Amino acid sequence: MLNQSIGIRSIAVTFPSIVRTNDYWMNKHPELVTKAEQKALSKLFSANNSNDKTCEFDQEMIPYMSDPFRGAVERRVLAPDESSITLEKRVASDAIVAAEMSPEEVDLMMVTSLFPERIAPGNASFLVGEMGLRCPAWNLESTCSSALVALQTASALVQTGAYRNVLVVISCIYSRFVDEDDTLSWFMGDGAGAFVVGALKPNQGVLGTKIIHTAATCGAFFNELTIDNQGNPRMRIRTGKNASQQIRGTGVEFVRACSLGAIADAGVTLDDIKFFAFNTPTAWYANLCVRALGIDPERTINLYPQIANIGPVLPIVNLYYGAHKGKVKEDDLVLVYTIGSASTAAATVMRWGDVKLGPLPAPAVYCNQQDEKIPLVVG
User: Fold this and answer.
1) CB distance 147 to 168 below 8 Å
2) Do residues 243 and 220 make contact, with C-beta atoms less than 8 angstroms apart?
3) Where are the domains of the chain?
4) Which residue from 23, 136, 200, 246 could staple onto 353, CB 3.0 to 4.6 Å apart?
5) How does DSSP assign 8-25, residue by residue?
6) Is the pLDDT of residue 372 over 70?
7) pLDDT of amino acid 366
8) Would the pLDDT of 1 be above 60?
9) Are 304 and 77 contacting, i.e. CB atoms less than 8 angstroms apart?
10) Class (C level, CATH) for 6-376
């Protein structure tokens, strides 16, 4: 049993129905754009106090410094009638169908909701009830590395025979936790992804993993409990005083430690990897990872300009579109890297199986200053 080949059987992604472009802020909040360099986003991503630990990060970031939006062009945001659970339910169903399974064949569901619909607990029990599944459902969280932590956990549980098919569901709804007149909203979006973990053909699936803690970034971001105009509790994302140095000073260190560690654990070489799916929380993060590992940029993908930072969903989206665009095919070696502040950084090497893809995300609509909607096909 312990020699089974375990990995991803199917993968699906989905986005909310509204696309918010930079024009939205330039039309609705022109004074915010004018004063952007004094606001939170520019303070977070500036090259102030550059040093040996930040220099590689800074070199990739500097080309974006003249842009107040720091490379973001579009971001998907929830419509009033959407929620993290509506996204999770849709994408979970798509992953099950893509895997050619019945709902009854799901033995366990793991859910990461960044953030859930309630301050506590997470969405797992609510989602499994909405879907009418009979399996147990767990909340699992390691901020933006949650997908790889869930993959490792699910693979281990399937390997031992405790479960056969584990459904992992990840959502991110940053737009509900940052005000639109806060420039942090410019680099944050919403989305959801899901994948089914189970037995694969021999020699396919997860081959090696390396996970480390990211205590050095504790305090870079934090959640503040506030009260809204209706007197209801509301969480808000804030940046800490040393956030810029913490993020810039650890980027290269973490990607090298995790990626090279996972490669060694898998018993392969950097040159063997066909496709790299990096967590891309900024416009330049893919380039930073390319620089850190010394690889050809054609071996990865960067969707940040179209979707901005969708936290723990990013690696799933990058894997999905990498496969959709033909950058990864069956039996190719793939490396996935994620970085989560105040949690973990992680990398996994897998041999891609006959992974079934869910449908391309449904059409979205543009949102301008007056919230007028203009059709757009995503993907």
Assistant:
1) yes
2) yes
3) 6-376
4) 200
5) EEEEEEE--SEEEEHHHH
6) no
7) 76
8) no
9) no
10) alpha beta
